Amino acid sequence: MHPRRWGSTQRAAKLPPEALALVELAFGPADDVIGDPADTTINDNALSPSSLNDQALDGLRACLGVNHVLTDAQSRASHTRGKSTPDLLRARADDLVDAPDAIVRPASHDEVTAIIEWAGQHGVAIVPFGGGTCVTGGLVARREGHSAIVSLDLTRMKRLIEVDHESMTATLEPGLRGPEAEALLAEHGLTLGHFPQSFEYATIGGFAATRSSGQSSAGYGRFDAMVVGLRVATPIGELTLGSAPATAAGPDLRQVILGSEGAFGVITGVRLRVRRLPEELSYEGWSWPDFEGGAQAIRSLAQSGHLPTVIRLSDEAETAINLADPEGIGSDNLGGCLMIVGHEGTPQDVARSRAITTELLSGLGGSALGSTPGEKWSHGRFDAPYLRDSLLDVGIFVETLETATFWSNRQALYDAVTEALRLHLPEKHLVLCHISHVYETGCSLYFTVATKFSGDALTSWHVAKSAVNDAIASVGATITHHHAIGTDHKPWLAKEVGPVGQSILRAIKQELDPDGIMNPGVMIP
Amino acid sequence: MHPRRWGSTQRAAKLPPEALALVELAFGPADDVIGDPADTTINDNALSPSSLNDQALDGLRACLGVNHVLTDAQSRASHTRGKSTPDLLRARADDLVDAPDAIVRPASHDEVTAIIEWAGQHGVAIVPFGGGTCVTGGLVARREGHSAIVSLDLTRMKRLIEVDHESMTATLEPGLRGPEAEALLAEHGLTLGHFPQSFEYATIGGFAATRSSGQSSAGYGRFDAMVVGLRVATPIGELTLGSAPATAAGPDLRQVILGSEGAFGVITGVRLRVRRLPEELSYEGWSWPDFEGGAQAIRSLAQSGHLPTVIRLSDEAETAINLADPEGIGSDNLGGCLMIVGHEGTPQDVARSRAITTELLSGLGGSALGSTPGEKWSHGRFDAPYLRDSLLDVGIFVETLETATFWSNRQALYDAVTEALRLHLPEKHLVLCHISHVYETGCSLYFTVATKFSGDALTSWHVAKSAVNDAIASVGATITHHHAIGTDHKPWLAKEVGPVGQSILRAIKQELDPDGIMNPGVMIP
User: Fold this and answer.
1) pLDDT digits over A185-219, tens only?
2) Around Cβ A101, how many Cβ atoms within 10 Å?
3) Helix, strand counts (H, E) of chain A
4) How far apart are CA B481 and CA B460, in angstroms?
5) Among A249, A25, A270, which Cα is nearest to A160's?
6) Residue from the list A345, A477, A499 with its beta carbon closest to the beta carbon of B243
7) pLDDT exceeds cutoff 60 at A279
8) What is the strand order of the sheet A429-438 is part of?
9) What local confidence, expressed as pLDDT, does residue A335 receive?
10) How far is CA A499 from the centre of its chain?
């Protein structure tokens, strides 16, 4: 992806005039154009020269072939950092100091192993790179102590290795992007059902390494719940896990690799539980008088064992201004809180699920809005990052953050986060929230923030985000439900797992990566 | 429990005459009585003197009070080993060499911490002890390198610490036995729904430390899936985990503690997802022409998302001779394979679940047998270990073993295990099997073996069990689905996780327990 924008540059667009008018109403006159959707140049001067000389690179070229060791400006720029708003702002300011010195593109587990060996010999740090969609600084390795940094781009590893129809599992290579994986599985009538907002670009390996969670997690589960087997190339050798769906053979080491963010090794294969492609998809809207009522209804569905495939609930502010849908901005305000309910499966299963949820939600005070809001949500579900770019283009700062907690702590968490934002953002700001992932015992809260900073947005946001993180920690919630740790969340991971938990993580790191070459500085407190 | 028998000595019984007649038909004339149900003596001479002198014990007494540091023969004998058949045979042969030197009974996390500190200072090994129901040698710590072994009996820690009705979680102390935990939760209208065969004696801490799985796991999930939070006393300090139902904050360290079998520390609190007590319980029997047909039907239920609360399927041999039910031995042979299907919940949910499974199972070739087989199963579900004692009393060796794999590997696993047993057991033997736990991607296989060894049963069984373990490993299945590793399965855990997996386990062990005092020799390869 382009370092300054999300996704396809062809889809970059200016903010529609009616949306711009509303934005000016909310935040004051728009700035002169800060970003231009049509500008896709890379400023070569923003890149320091690669610190890897030809002699060093020849070792890599011998492993991978000359075509798969890249040092050109375009490649280095497009592998610089991830896609948090600060990442985009730095790129927009021509700050590419975190660019890797080279990009290597292995095609197999053995080539990954060869790269790791080479890096160990040369004191080079490795940053595993899939879709480059990380929003928590997970692609910014610590350079100190290393002669160079290479970005290990996995997107040539995109085979469907095996389909086991009887066990309903599929083994995939890590470089498959969401749509590529789904297309390969669809040929077999199968689906993962994993659709996070990053779906169009993020990869299988990245989903596993960061414990991704998709918008259909109520029905299909989190990504870590889909993983039944893993193959990992570590600096001390290969690790292959997954002898059964579940086991009592000691600690579950799959759960040590999931969430390890490249700090323990490179995931080179993932065996996943798959499902049959749904014959029918039915998304609908429900309206609730308030967030509390809708949240209690979701809790009731989860705890009675009747969750649909998709369920999400926007708070009053998010319902009023649906930033994910530029066309919708300024349309009639529904009032209350919008819930999206989706059912997928056989026609019988969809009918059964709809009947049960309709009965339960009606009984709990919800009002059915029919299929239009559901279809609109489904249509625009991957578009929000493009809108963010358009808003950044006119000087509006937009970012998201998320957390999760147990149901009894939901309101306290919501209050703590919104209060921290209120205290640390300019007076004119928007904070939108939705419940995005649901469990019997709790849920995640996903916040979207929009404001206009006067002065240094990066520093101002850093202060506000740190205050939010402190607030999350102060109520005992998790620092991240599905955005992972990266470098941004490390101090709060340390609090969350405590000194003994930190010791466990560091001990595993030291054992698997004694030279500290795997994504140094990321995740491990 | 008595070292020679399972459970309550009041429930120890001789084999009924009609069962004895059948056993003699199968295995030849019964031996003279080897064990007597009425004999509950402990042979003091079987115990070596405690290697802990009064001076050393005074330190413990200062922590816990004099009443909770025990060295009497009865206490030491009853904390010797677990309840595998080899454990019972050794005790029956007056072999109590693995008896701990003392039993300590803490009442709180802080007292556990004090014991661990004392043990570290004195070079004493600690064996955490809950129900004492382990069947894989997990209560037999390695004595070498330690001045003594203390059994850390957790059964005074039996409080229900907190009920969170909104989040549907309960925080329990580790020493609560299954029925005690259920009774406390029932006062709040709640249940764990965790009913392994060891239910009547095993404890919450043990369930967590060994990744137990109950007979209602299809509906309530494995124990590790119920755990949302953990408190652990380790030699390097306290570890508290569980900030949300699910998180992307690095590796899931809860899954490092679950299955750790006391080797990393002592679990002193467990926060668990709970469910409402079911208003209705309905268990029924289904008959299948063969094991394959029944297995495919279970797979179909699991993969269509319509698992009932309980599902298990006996193979032809287990269906013909239900060893779990002495009264049933010799009754009419149903033929084919018996499946138990149980539904629990509200009347509406039970009706809905029954309707769906009835439609699916009928369509797949099953024949409904009504509620009698289901009720009979439910009635006798915790009795098998008593029958084992009665059979051991007349010289019949009975033991169980279990494993799990993916569906496509089920038949190969079944064949490998039964063939290994056929080759290594005396000609006259029974091997019974059932599918006991079910997932979308696979299932567990639970085997019961009965035979009559001429000569040294311990050695003969060790040879046969090792061959079975090799067979399980050779087809890539897990060495244990819910019996854990203990000391018995260690060589096969090493194969299952490979050299890198072993390194991870040893690194965590070294970090958390640098002096190696926590259940030394158990689990870690």
Assistant:
1) 999 999 999 999 999 999 999 999 999 999 999 99
2) 24
3) 18, 18
4) 24
5) A270
6) A477
7) yes
8) A367-370, A280-288, A337-345, A310-314, A429-438, A442-451, A397-406
9) 80
10) 27
Neighboring chain B residues of A228 at a CB cutoff of 8 Å: 406, 441
* Chain A residues with beta carbon closer than 8 angstroms to that of B507: 507-508, 510-511
Element (H, E) at B401: strand B397-406
Instruction: State how far the Cα of B133 lies from the Cα of B141, in Å rounded to an integer.
Output: 15
For B466-506, the pLDDT digits (tens) are 999 999 999 999 999 999 999 999 999 999 999 999 999 99
Separation CA A180–CA B479 (nearest Å): 35
| Cβ separation B480–A505 shorter than 8 A | no
CB contact under 8 A, B439 and A245: yes
Q: Give every strand in the sheet of B442-451, ordered side by side.
A: B367-370, B280-288, B337-345, B310-314, B429-438, B442-451, B397-406
Strand-by-strand arrangement of the A102-104 sheet: A69-70, A102-104, A148-153, A124-129
Please, what is the angle between helix A109-122 and helix A54-64, to 10°?
A: 160
Q: Which two tokens stand for residue A203?
A: 């990869």
Asked if the model's pLDDT at residue B324 lies above 50, the reply is: no
Which residue of chain B is at minimal alpha-carbon distance from A479? B249
| Tens-place pLDDT, residues B224-234 | 999 999 999 99
Instruction: Say what the pTM is.
Output: 0.97
User: E strands of A412-519, at which residues?
Assistant: 429-438, 442-451
Token pair for B147: 């001045």
Give per-residue pLDDT as tens, A237-259: 999 999 999 999 999 999 999 99
The verdict on a CB contact (< 8 Å) between A251 and B257 is yes
Query: DSSP class of residue B337?
Result: E
What's A66's DSSP letter?
G
Q: Which two tokens stand for residue B508?
A: 């965590």
Give the pLDDT of residue A323: 43
Interface A:B, Cβ pairs < 8 A: 284
CB A495 within 8 A of CB A476: no
User: What 3-state class would DSSP assign to B29?
Assistant: coil
* Distant-in-sequence contacts of B95-99, Cβ < 8 A, 24+ apart: B95/B46, B96/B3, B96/B46, B96/B47, B97/B48, B98/B139, B98/B140, B99/B47, B99/B48
Nearest to A365 by CA among A299, A306, A428, A286: A286
Please report the domains of chain A, with CATH numbers, ordered by start residue.
9-153 (3.30.43.10), 160-276 (3.30.465.10), 281-474 (3.40.462.40)
Residue pair B519/B125 in contact by the 8 Å Cβ criterion: yes
Q: Which residues contact B18 (CB under 8 A, 6 or more apart)?
A: B329, B330
**Across the interface, which of B167, B481, B512 has its CB nearest the CB of A248?**
B481
- Residue of B167, B279, B446 to mutate, testing the A interface (most A Cβ within 10 Å of its Cβ): B167
Distance CA A166, CA A190 (A): 12
Name which of B73, B1, B59 is nearest B385 in CA terms: B1
Q: Which residue has the higher pLDDT, B252 or B32?
A: B252
B17-40 pLDDT tens trace: 888 888 888 899 887 667 888 888
Beta carbons of B243 and A477 less than 8 angstroms apart: yes
Residue A234: which of B210, B500, B523 has the nearest Cβ? B500
Cβ-contact B123, B204 below 8 angstroms = no
Q: Which contacts qualify for B197-202: CB closer than 8 Å, 24 or more apart?
A: B197/B381, B197/B382, B197/B384, B197/B385, B198/B83, B198/B131, B198/B133, B199/B382, B200/B7, B200/B382, B201/B1, B201/B7, B201/B131, B201/B132, B201/B133, B201/B177, B202/B130, B202/B131, B202/B133, B202/B177, B202/B178
ipTM, 2 dp: 0.96
On whether the CB atoms of residues A75 and A103 are closer than 8 A, the answer is yes
Whether residues A167 and B250 touch (CB distance < 8 A) is answered with: no
Of the partner residues B247, B349, B439, the one whose CB lies closest to the CB of residue A246: B439
- Spell out which residues of chain B touch residue A170, defining contact as CB-CB under 8 Å: none
